[in-house]
Amino acid sequence: MRFFIDTANIEEIREASSWGILDGVTTNPTLCAKEGREFRSSIKEIADIVDGPISAEAISMERDGIVEEARKIASIAPNIVVKIPITEEGLAATKKLSSEGIKVNMTLIFSVNQALLAAKVGAAFVSPFLGRLDDIGHDSIAILYDMVVVYQNYDFDTKIIAASIRHPLHVTKAAEAGADIATVPFSILQQIVTHPLTDKGIDRFLKDWDKIKNL
Length: 215
What we know:
The chain is α/β, with parallel strands linked by helices. The protein has one domain: TIM Barrel, CATH 3.20.20. The chain has helices at residues 10-18, 29-34, 39-49, 63-74, 88-99, 112-120, 130-135, 140-154, 168-177, 186-193, 196-212; strands at residues 2-6, 24-26, 54-57, 80-85, 104-109, 125-128, 159-162, 181-184. It has an eight-stranded parallel beta barrel with strand order 1-2-3-4-5-6-7-8, surrounded by seven helices. The mean pLDDT is 95.
């Protein structure tokens, strides 16, 4: 499974990239605004740091406007992927953009049928939102598993990005279900790295070393 980081924070992206585990980035205007940064310049800087796919969201809601905006976003860097919410207009725009070679991450996916339609119009990625599904009492991992099965049934090239990751168990279960990618907040990436027994083992090792280093 590949790991993307879900943020517009440049320091977090640089740090995660330095670990050697970062394959891409997902972001949106809200995350850029949270960092107090202009959208286009932020995306360009992120694309310069990370070689993998950088998802940047279009905000237009009408198909012609989505296509026009997506072309501008995609022109920022060769590794840009345009995030488009799944709507009737979004599907039409994605069909057009995919025919032009512009990669789309169809976002705000909550059902297998939505994921199926996104793949049909050529989306390069789909982003099911696990946390938001759990919030309304749905079994997000069961839905994710069904998406994986359907994609395998029809040999779609579309990659599944497990999004709205709320805790490390989401990552584990997404990997078990066969998601291609998990896009994870930096704080969750840090939690994945750590384990109490790892910390305990390091502490014991250092204490033992202190006992013998001067013998």
